[in-house]
Design a protein that fits this description.
By secondary structure, this protein is mainly α. It has four helices and no strands. The chain has three domains: 49 residues; 86 residues; 34 residues. The model has no long low-confidence stretch (mean pLDDT 85). InterPro entries: TMEM109.
C-alpha cells in the first residue's frame, strides 16, 4: 500500500511537471508573438520577463489556488457572520416587540382607546422594523412561478381568441 501512494505521488508530480512545461511553452510563444507584433507596429516592447519557466508557472498556479481557496473561506466566514448578526438583530426586534406588547396589555390604568392607539403604534413599529421573516427573499421563487403562469394564461387566451375569430369568420 505504501508503494501505491508513492507511485501515485510520482504520477501526480510528473503530470504537474508535464502540464507546467506545456503551459510555459505556450506562454513563451505568445510572449514572442506579442513582442514581434508590437515591434512591427513601431512600439518598443520591453517586457519585464523574456522567458516563462515551468517552475514559474507552478509558482503562479500555487498562489492563484491559494487566493481562490482563501476567497472561498473568507466569503464563507463572512456569510456565517452576516447570517448570525441578521438572526441576532431579528431576535432583538422580536424580543422588543413582544416586550412592548406585554407592557401595553399589562397597563391597567389605560383606556381602551389608548390601548388601541398603542397597539396600532406597535404594528407601525413592526412594519418599520420589518419583522416578518428571517429569510431574505421568502417568496421570490413563488413570484417567478406566478408570473410564468400568468404569461401562460395570457398566451392561451390569445390563442383561444384567435381560434374564436377564425371560427366566426368561417361561419360567415
Amino acid at each position: 500500500m505504501r508503494t501505491d501512494s508513492i507511485s501515485l505521488h510520482q504520477l501526480l508530480q510528473s503530470d504537474v511537471k508535464w502540464k507546467s512545461d506545456a503551459v510555459a511553452s505556450v506562454l513563451n510563444v505568445v510572449i514572442r508573438y506579442v513582442a514581434e507584433t508590437l515591434e512591427s507596429a513601431g512600439i518598443d516592447a520591453k517586457l519585464p520577463f523574456q522567458k516563462v519557466t515551468p517552475e514559474g508557472v507552478i509558482f503562479v498556479a500555487k498562489w492563484g489556488l491559494l487566493v481562490v481557496v482563501a476567497y472561498w473561506i473568507i466569503s464563507f466566514i463572512v456569510r456565517l457572520v452576516v447570517g448570525a448578526v441578521r438572526q441576532t438583530l431579528w431576535l432583538l426586534k422580536v424580543t422588543f416587540v413582544i416586550g412592548m406588547f406585554g407592557w401595553i396589555l399589562s397597563t391597567t390604568g389605560a383606556s381602551a382607546e389608548t390601548t388601541a392607539v398603542r397597539l396600532a403604534g406597535l404594528v407601525c413599529i413592526c412594519v418599520l422594523l420589518g419583522i416578518r421573516s428571517t429569510s431574505a427573499k421568502p417568496d421570490a421563487h413563488l413570484e417567478d412561478k406566478i408570473k410564468m403562469l400568468e404569461r401562460r394564461l395570457d398566451d392561451d387566451g390569445e390563442k383561444q381568441n384567435g381560434m374564436m375569430e377564425k371560427s366566426s369568420s368561417d361561419q360567415e
